[in-house]
Amino acid sequence: MFAPGSQIGPITPEERRALIANSVVAGVYEKEVDRESALEMLKARAETKAAAAPATAGSAAGAGAGAGGVLGGLGGSLGGMVFGSTGPRGGHHDGLVDLMAKSAARSAGSAISRSILRGVLGSIMGKR
Q1: How many Å apart are CA 11 and CA 67, to the nearest integer?
Q2: Is the overall model pTM greater than 0.70, yes or no?
Q3: In angstroms, rounded to a whole number, what is the distance separating the alpha carbons of residues 65 and 55?
Q4: Can you give the three-state secondary structure of the chain, one letter per residue?
Q5: What is the pLDDT of residues 63-72, one digit of tens each?
Q6: Integer Cα distance of 43 and 39 in angstroms
Q7: Confidence at residue 25, expressed as pLDDT on a 0 to 100 scale
């Protein structure tokens, strides 16, 4: 075992340079790295989407300028209400079909569990 080494008072500039040069991480943290930040990535993504949006909007406006364009938007929203939709961040919004299926599954599950529980408790208590 070695006794801890220490010094009373500050070290000299030459000792400081020697310690830095002989360090295990010498040369690693001296390099400056300017990585792309999340804000810069989001701005670049927004700019590419904004540049692509006018091109697609112009072609869609020319194709669906009649009643089909209005009806297509209405059909899309009705489809989202009936069958559900996915939000801009990936979240799923349940539609009427999903909600009805969940409700039916819940009521069937509770009825089955209720009958099993009554049967088990009835056999334990000795009632018929």
Answers
A1: 83
A2: no
A3: 16
A4: CCCCCCCCCCCCHHHHHHHHHCCCCCCCCCCCCCCCCHHHHHHHHHHHHHHHHHHHHHHHHHHCCCHHHHHHHHHHHHHHHHHCEECCCCCEECCHHHHHHHHHHHHHHHHHHHHHHHHHHHHHHCCC
A5: 444 444 444 5
A6: 6
A7: 87
